[in-house]
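Input/output pair, single chain:
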Amino acid sequence: MIAAPAELRIEEGRVQGALVVSVSGALKFPAAVQLTHAVEQLITEGVGAVTVLDLTALDNGTDHTGIAVLVAAARDLKAAGSQVRVVTADRAILARLPYTLGLRRLFRSRADALDLQL
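Output:
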């Protein structure tokens, strides 16, 4: 039996001058690769000084592919000149991402991420 791809939704917009990428659903293989394509497109269109990856609406966990995609997205956004801020309350992500992404901290709310002064 072949499992259907998990649904993943990616929305982007600008809030207070920052690019906000909201990811909801399951960040698992094979759907997680959609985030890679979305970030590539955003970089092509141009990112600002700050990009917020809002992961607060993820459900059904995140697998290794999802973590790898987040790491690649953050790396690519940083290379494009954007400061990456991750918003999540997921304990698994909180435990794995700061070290992996080289982030000093993760944020528990979008408001906290947007309010941090550069």
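The mean pLDDT is 82. The two ends are 50 Å apart (CA to CA).
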